[in-house]
Write a structure and sequence with these properties.
heterodimer, A: alpha+beta, 7-stranded mixed beta sheet, 6-stranded antiparallel beta sheet, 7 helices, B: alpha+beta, elongated
């Protein structure tokens, strides 16, 4: 590297020795940048203006003979980012097939993939195909591999226990070895529902910090048993440094400051509440640790002293049931139903409905194994107590969105925009209405960021177009202030009129009194 | 005779190309780094890839594309190393 003004692009292609690939195909790349501003070892030689950016298109490429792939786990690793889920064509979509597609799609979206649900295969090397009902289910396998013309299909039998398969895939992918997978669900609950504490799923490694170090931690709003987050605890282990001042830890939740404090050398417990109004369905906690300048004659250019977030850090979940979307997600953890319209039994159309349902479930962080699919609006009437996501179509009047506070109804005619979807949560959390502006056009937004406390949202193909603010409870003081300011506004507008009316009233009283006095005085003297 | 030799050579030389291999690309974006990586002055990062078994993979290669801005640099280097992790299988 050399000093240069402006941006320099670089590209390197390197063959990887096969011995660098670990036992199960694991490759861990470590990328170290070292850009020193001066060669004097006794000065601060770090200049943050020196930057290396590695573009997201970088990566590892390899060739593979698909005919030699015999193991399901290898096939799963070869699935492209935009994975195809193929529905059985030429026959009405069954509940089992739809449910399988929903579970797979929601799982993939939750893991950052972009599934496509359709009926015709494109030219991608590996895809997932759902077996049609007439196909022979003589095999006992939930998933088998089928080679065809140099392409590879992972064929999944919707009649088998697909939930067990997806759970296995999610929890322990390396156990699915060989050309067949056998999985069954146990009746006992997998998690201890008594415990309200969940550790962070992935803890970042220790950092050697000279001045500032930064970590990000992700956690969901809703635990797998439906509980909502309440507070967090961070266990920070801090190595001593050469300064006399203790380091400072600052914690941001979704970009907003939640707590900051001095931390001691050794073990620290930082506990803080998570304000419900700042929480999304997926939350990011950013922890920044800043050390004081080291007091030595010569600060060596290498080093830094370790800080680590220790196991035992995590989130505590409470017993609140939440409002709006969070309340629906909370209830869906105990099971629910996605009700699709009758016309979506056509597999060419049904795939798009299922994909949108999977996006909503993934956005809710819903543990979707207890969610089933039903076709037709009669289903909703049969089980009125069940939590339901109901797909509807807007009538001739268009999609109507209730805007809170002063505004009236916003009418969006379906003709004015390509295709929109409204999400409306019922206040008791029993129903989520998904209203489509056009029945045959279902938008497929890549990302769906919903806030936990919101109740209404409008979605287009680009994502969330509009979202109402989480409902906030106004305190008594706010109410008093609001009424005082109303009075002031009233006086500013009508103050002179009011004063005039008072003066007029005053004059009438004075004059009337005079007249009455004069009248009675006249009678008395008569 | 020379032509025959050329044809034989061509058949044998091209034979491996007829084996149906597919090129698979796994990018940083697929591994969750949707904006890539930004490293300032002295920083490091780890990117984990889960490839098929080494015996199934042919000709693995690494492609790094990036951009560097070094307005104030005395000396610098960028190191990309592979650290083999132990088996991550569940017991």
């Amino acid at each position: 590297m050399k000093q240069a003004d402006g941006l320099q692009a670089f590209q390197r292609d390197v063959d990887i020795d096969k011995r660098l690939i670990g036992a199960d195909g694991a490759v861990n790349l470590r990328i170290d940048a070292e850009m020193l501003a001066t060669s004097d070892p006794c000065t601060n030689d770090l200049d943050p203006a020196n930057v290396v950016a590695i573009l997201p298109a970088s990566g590892i490429a390899f060739d593979i003979d698909l005919n030699s792939v015999k193991s399901l786990i290898t096939a799963l690793k070869l699935l492209p980012r935009r994975t195809q889920i193929l529905l059985p064509a030429n026959q009405a979509l069954s509940e089992a097939s739809a449910q399988t597609a929903l579970h797979l799609a929601a799982l993939m979206i939750a893991h950052g993939r972009e599934p496509i649900i359709q009926t015709s295969r494109d030219d991608s090397a590996v895809a997932i195909r759902i077996r049609d009902a007439e196909g022979d289910s003589a095999t006992q396998n939930a998933a088998v591999l089928e080679h065809d013309n140099g392409k590879l299909d992972i064929v999944i039998d919707p009649q088998r226990d697909i939930v067990a398969l997806t759970r296995l895939w999610q929890l322990a992918p390396a156990t699915i070895i060989g050309s067949q997978a056998t999985a069954s669900r146990s009746s006992a609950p997998a998690t201890n529902v008594q415990s309200t504490f969940r550790g962070f799923s992935q803890l970042p490694p220790a950092q050697n910090i000279r001045q500032t170090g930064e970590w990000t931690l992700n956690f969901p709003l809703i635990a797998e048993d439906g509980r909502l987050t309440e507070s967090a605890v961070l266990k920070l282990a801090v190595a001593p440094d050469w300064s006399d001042d203790p380091p400072i830890a600052t914690v941001y939740l979704n970009g907003q400051l939640v707590t900051a404090s001095r931390i001691n050398v050794g073990d620290n417990d930082i506990r803080f509440a998570l304000p419900p109004r700042m929480l999304n369905f997926n939350n990011t906690l950013r922890v920044v640790v800043e050390r004081a300048n080291e007091r030595r004659d010569c600060v060596p250019p290498t080093g830094g002293h370790a800080v680590q977030i220790m196991p035992g850090s995590g989130v505590t979940f409470g017993n609140e049931s939440g409002t709006g979307f969070a309340r629906i997600a909370h209830r869906l953890a105990a099971g629910g139903v996605v009700i699709l319209p009758k016309q979506s039994r056509d597999p060419n159309l049904g795939g798009r409905y299922i994909l949108l349902a999977a996006r909503v479930l993934a956005a809710f962080g819903s543990n979707d194994e207890a969610v089933r699919i039903a076709f037709g609006s009669d289903e909703a009437k049969q089980a009125p107590n069940q939590t339901a996501i109901i797909f509807e179509t807007a009538g001739a009047e268009g999609l109507q969105i209730p805007i809170p506070s002063r505004a009236e109804w916003l009418n969006l005619q379906p003709a004015s925009s390509p295709a929109l979807v409204g999400l409306f949560a019922e206040p008791d959390g029993s129903r989520l209405r998904v209203v489509l502006s056009k029945p045959d056009q279902v938008p497929d937004p890549r990302t769906l960021y919903l806030r936990g406390g919101g109740t209404n949202a409008l979605i287009s193909a680009e994502g969330v177009v509009w979202h109402d603010a989480p409902t906030t409870i106004t305190s008594a003081f706010d109410g008093l202030y609001a009424s005082a300011s109303d009075l002031r506004r009233f006086l500013e507008r009508y103050g002179w009129h009011l004063a005039g009316a008072f003066i007029l009233l005053f004059l009438i009283i004075i004059l009337g009194r005079r007249m009455l006095v004069a009248y009675f005085r006249g009678r008395g003297t008569r | 005779m020379r032509l025959h030799a050329f044809i034989i050579f061509a058949i044998f030389g091209l034979a491996p190309a007829h084996a149906q291999t597919q090129t698979v690309d796994v990018t940083f974006q697929d591994q969750g780094f949707s904006n890539g990586l930004q490293l300032r002055s002295r920083e490091s990062a780890n990117v984990f890839f889960s490839l098929p078994n080494a015996s199934d993979v042919l000709r693995p290669r690494l492609r790094i594309q990036g951009q560097i801005a070094t307005p104030n640099l005395a000396r610098g280097s960028l190191l990309i190393a592979s650290t083999i992790s132990r088996s991550t299988r569940f017991p």
